[in-house]
Each structure stands twice: as C-alpha cells, then as structure tokens.
Design a protein that fits this description.
The structure holds two protein chains of two kinds. Chain A has 13 helices and two strands; from the N terminus they run αααββαααααααααα. By secondary structure, chain A is mainly α. Chain B has a domain at about 60-190: Alpha-Beta Plaits (2-Layer Sandwich), CATH 3.30.70.3270. Classes of the chains: A mainly alpha, B alpha+beta.
Chain lengths: ~350, ~190
C-alpha cells in the first residue's frame, strides 16, 4: 500500500504548484509596474503610461529588454558561484510559497483539494529556514563578482538579515505561544473559527515582524545592500541581462511572499472579515466561499504590497550604524519583552 | 545675539524627545504626507498628445511669407540680415524674369535665403526690420539633429506652403501666423 502512487494527488499538487509559481511570477512582474506607478502617483507624476493601456505592458517590455541584453560574466569572477547567486535568490524566493495556505478547501469532482502545496506541521520554521537561505543568494553573488562594492554590499546584506532574523523569530515566538502550533494552516483555521485576527492579540509582535520583514526583503528604509548612492548598485553591480533581472525579480517575489506570510500569520489569512464562513458555506456552497476567501487573502497581500511601496517612497534609508542599533538594541529587547509579557498573560489567564 | 535682519533663526539642538526617538509617529506623519499627494493635481502633461500653450509672444523658427496668390514676398533687400545681431541671415538677390511673375511679388527676389539656426538667437529683430511683411517667427522650435549643416535652413525649409498647391497646409501655417501677428501687435500696444 505504501508504494501505491496516488496519481490524482500528484496531478493536483503539480497543478497547484504551477498555478502558484506562475501566479507569484505574474504578481511580482506587476509589482514592478505597481512600484513605478505608486512612486509616480506619490510624487505627483504619472508613472509608466506608454506601453499598452495605462502602461500595463511595461513589465513585459522590461522583461524582454532584460532578456535581450548582453550577458556578461566578468573574467575575474568565480563563474559557477556567479551563476549560482541569482539562481539561489530566485529559488529561495519561490520556495517559501509552498507552505502558505492560499485558501481553504475546494471540491472538484468529488475530491477535496487543499489550496496549499504542503501543510507541514513546522510551516513557520520552514519559512524561516528558506528565508535565511535567501541571504546566500546575496552573499554568493556579491562574493563571486570580485568587486569591492559588491562584497561590501553582500557583507552588509548578510549581517543585516541575520540581525533582523533574530528579532523576527523572537516576535514570532510570542505568536506561537498563542496559537500553540507551527502549522500555517492551523494558525489560519484558528483565526477563521474565532474571528479574532492575531494582530489584535499581538500588535507589538506584528510591528516588530513588519519592520523585520522590511529588513529581510532589503526594502527601503533597510535597502543598504543595494544602496545606489553608496555602493553603486550593491551586490548585483556586476550582473547584467536576466541574471540581474532574477535578482530584482527575487526581491519582488520576496515582497509578495512576506506580504502573504504577514497576512496569514497576523491578518487571518483567507478569513473574510466580519463574516462567519461556516454559515456562509451552507447557503452559498463551499467552493464559492473558498474562492472568496482566496480573493480576500490576495487583497490583504495587495494592501501589504502597497504598504511596502508606500513606505519606500516616504522614508529615507537608515545609516548602517542606525540599522544595527535598531536591530540589536531596540527590536530584540522589545521582542523579548513582548515574549515575556505574552507568556505571563497566558499563564495568568490559565490560572 | 544681535542679528542684522529679523529673518535669522537660531537653531536649537536639543536632544530628541522620547516621541521623536521612537520615530514611528514621524513615519506616520510622513506617510500621511505622501498619501495626500495621491490626490493632488499632477503638473505633468502627456506631451506628444497634449501640448502646453505657447506664450503669446513666443518666438520660434522663422517662416518666409507668401502673399495671397502664393508669390514670395521677400525682395532680398537685406534689412533683416543687417538687423540680425547674430549675423545668422545670408541671402543672394536675383532679378525676376518675365515668366516668373506668378512666383515672386516684385522685380527683385531672394534666390538664396539662409538662416543658420545655430547662430540665431530668436530675438525677432528680422521680423521687425522687414518692410515687406516677408519674415515671421513661428511657434515651431528647432528640432534636434545630428549635423551642424542641417541647421542651416534654406528657402525650402523656411517658405510657407503654397496656398494654391497646398491650401490646407498654407491655411494652418497662415492661422498660426495671423495669431502671431495679432499677439505681437497686442504686446506692442501694451508697452
């Protein structure tokens, strides 16, 4: 029985993976468009509006341009690592999407399909593991370029991500004490059934997580690894053509995924606010409610994406010592305090 | 401290208060400012489709005028070349032949008429100097080009379209010219 292969399950998972990977690629593509459009609108400009209606074909044009560019591998670089860098950045960015529950269940031809690639019981840990691998993309790329600026950027990126991962993990521990589970699915289901989003129980934890997410994605105000005016271009200075494109793209996929993680952990995932899903499913049918839930999740993600951009075009970049100061001296003690208070409150309530 | 004007402001460098060090309220303030800019009017125009109106006395590229029968007005008197402070205008005069009455308005005409648009300072003195109503500054401004030679505009570049063979183009150019003339006259009367 162990060897019996469930082809339907394989097909179902394969399709789901294809849809999610394609979906995150397209969303990342249009995130670049949205970034420029939002930047334009916030700065009283118009943003891209030449390619296609409202400039909607702009990301396609950018992609074609990047593909057409000459691909240069510097002679003094370590070639394998030079190629490995953007690959790692891209792969790790895509891998995180596996444990995010994109919706509840859908019923197709008598089969119940979970809209999640893998519901593993250590979902949160998996995300942490993969995200911390993402720093290798930056490190290897910057190191293999054999360029001082790239190397400085890579070192900056590595130390920044490691510093902020600590605070991020600590802020999550407080959340996990509340949920009692590391599975993303369970965390969402708890929020759906209780109707109370975790952000209401863990506002400080969410704030710390949000700040750390900005740092992990290398977004302004923490975009020191690619600080143009300090390091020319940062770790991807020597890259050209689609390898550069992969680095830039990975950043947007990371943004999309971390938005999804934030929405899942703190904002109820596919929970439709002010609605009792179980009641609605009885009158409207399970599938429709699931689709509505997924749309809700995407809306939440879209809001976070906008928030990322909004912050980027508002706040100037931190100085490096300020960044380290914030990470080690402010966020980590705060996260520890948050953890202790949460633990104390849980103990007190249980008595 | 005694200051020369009352505009000077003494900079106070107090240590930041707790709220300021928190930084988050200030971030919220900044984000409110950027958000409010979403609803502001944008000064940008979609250039090739939309153009900004010119100032009434805008002085662009020159145009050599024709009369209503399509004959060139210029008699190559050279007053414009003399008036030109940048010495951008050269011309060669020629005598009208008996079978050329439909081409040139008077007995003498400009066989060659060149303006070096790189030298020209677009002051409009040629327009003021012309006794024959032959040269005007239009609302077109100099297009970019790769060679210096191409900026020396000859008669084919300068002449207004012929009202007989190209009536539509002539009317368009004429319309702009008439508006320009009216504007210049109005500006002069204001002075």
């Amino acid at each position: 029985m162990m060897l019996a292969v469930d082809f339907a399950l394989m097909l179902e998972k394969f399709l789901l993976i294809v849809v999610i990977i394609m979906g995150s690629l397209v969303i990342a593509m249009y995130a670049t468009y949205a970034e420029r459009k939002v930047a334009g609108i916030l700065q009283d400009r118009r943003g891209p509006n030449r390619a296609g209606p409202f400039g909607l074909l702009q990301p396609v044009a950018d992609g074609v341009k990047l593909f057409m560019k000459e691909e240069i591998i510097p002679l003094t670089s370590s070639k394998w690592l030079f190629i490995l860098g953007p690959c790692l950045a891209m792969v790790t960015a895509m891998m995180t999407s596996a444990v995010i529950p994109w919706g509840s269940k859908i019923e197709i031809a008598g089969r119940t399909v979970d809209l999640q690639i893998a519901d593993i019981n250590i979902g949160v840990l998996y995300i942490f593991g993969v995200v911390s691998m993402g720093v290798y993309g930056i490190m290897i790329g910057g190191w293999a370029s054999n360029n001082k600026f790239s190397l400085i950027a890579a070192v900056r990126g590595a130390s920044q991500i490691i510093s902020y991962e600590l605070a991020m993990g600590l802020s999550l521990i407080a959340l996990l004490m509340l949920t009692g589970s590391l599975s993303m699915k369970t965390i969402v289901e708890q929020q759906v059934s209780s109707g109370i989003w975790n952000v209401l129980l863990q506002p400080l934890g969410f704030l710390i997580f949000l700040i750390c997410a900005f740092a992990e994605c290398n977004r302004t105000p923490f975009d020191l690894p690619e600080a143009e005016n300090e390091l020319n271009f940062g770790y991807h200075q020597e890259y050209s053509s689609m390898k550069l494109g992969f680095y830039l793209f990975a950043e947007y996929i990371n943004m999309f995924i971390s938005s999804a993680v934030m929405a899942t952990l703190y904002f109820g995932g596919y929970d439709i606010p002010f609605v009792n899903e179980a009641n609605l499913a009885q009158s409207w049918g399970e599938n429709l409610v699931t689709v509505l839930g997924s749309v809700t999740l995407l809306l939440k993600v879209a809001f976070f994406l906008f928030f990322f951009m909004w912050v980027r075009w508002t706040i100037p970049r931190f100085r490096y010592d300020q960044l380290m100061d914030l990470g080690w001296k402010k966020l980590i003690p705060l996260a520890l305090a948050n953890m202790l208070i949460t633990g104390a409150v849980i103990l007190w309530l249980n008595k | 401290m005694q200051t020369l004007t009352n505009r000077a402001k003494v900079l106070e460098q107090k240590p930041l208060t707790f709220m300021e060090r928190l930084y988050l309220p200030n971030i919220a303030k900044g984000m409110a400012i950027t958000f409010s800019h979403m609803f502001k009017k944008r000064p940008t125009i979609n250039y090739p489709e939309q153009t900004r109106p010119f100032s009434p006395v805008f002085r662009g590229l020159h145009i050599l005028n024709r009369d209503e029968e399509g004959r060139e007005r210029c008699t190559a008197c050279g007053l414009c070349a003399v008036a030109c402070p940048a010495e951008a205008i050269t011309m060669e005069a020629a005598e009208r032949k008996s079978n050329e009455e439909h081409l040139y308005r008077e007995e003498k005409y400009a066989a060659r008429y060149e303006i070096n648009m790189l030298r020209c300072i677009f002051c409009g003195l040629c327009e003021e100097a012309c006794p024959k109503d032959a040269i005007y500054l239009s609302e077109t401004f100099a297009p970019a080009n790769f060679t210096r030679q191409s900026f020396i505009y000859g008669k084919p570049d300068l002449l207004i379209p012929d009202p007989k063979s190209q009536p539509d183009e002539f009317r368009m150019a004429q319309g702009r010219l008439e508006a320009h003339k009216a504007n210049v006259k109005a500006a002069k009367n204001d002075q």
